[in-house]
Design brief:
- The protein has about 110 residues and is mainly alpha-helical.
- The protein has 2 domains: about 40 residues, no CATH class; about 40 residues.
- It is built from 4 helices and no strands.
- The model has no long low-confidence stretch (mean pLDDT about 80).
C-alpha cells in the first residue's frame, strides 16, 4: 500500500508541476461562467420574417401560414404548461376556475 501511495504522490507532483495543468485549472471555470453570459447576448428574441410569393393560387402560402400558426400555438401551450408546473397549479379545484367573462369583469 505504501508503494501505491508513493507512485500516486509522484504522479500528482509531476502533473501539478506542469504549466498546462494550472492553465486549464484557471481557464475551465472562466469558460463555465462565460458560456451562459454569451448565450444571453447571442440569443435573438425577434422571430425571423419570411416572405412567400405564391403565384400558384395561394395553396403554399396558406400551408406555410397555417404551419406558423400551429408553431405559435404550440409555443403558447408550452409556456402555459411550464407556468402551471412551476406554480403547482395542476391540483386547482374546479370551483376555483373562472366560468366566463362576467366573473372576470366582476373581479
Amino acid at each position: 500500500m505504501k508503494n501505491i501511495l508513493l507512485v500516486a504522490a509522484r504522479e500528482f507532483r509531476q502533473i501539478a508541476g506542469m504549466r498546462s495543468f494550472w492553465l486549464t485549472l484557471l481557464i475551465l471555470p472562466l469558460c463555465f461562467a462565460a458560456g451562459p453570459l454569451a448565450q444571453r447576448f447571442i440569443d435573438k428574441d425577434e422571430p425571423d420574417q419570411v416572405m412567400v410569393i405564391d403565384r400558384t393560387g395561394g395553396g403554399e402560402a396558406r400551408a406555410v401560414q397555417q404551419r406558423f400558426e400551429i408553431d405559435r400555438g404550440r409555443d403558447v401551450l408550452t409556456e402555459l404548461s411550464r407556468y402551471v408546473q412551476r406554480h403547482h397549479l395542476e391540483a386547482a379545484e374546479e370551483e376555483d376556475a373562472i366560468e366566463g367573462n362576467a366573473e372576470v369583469l366582476a373581479g
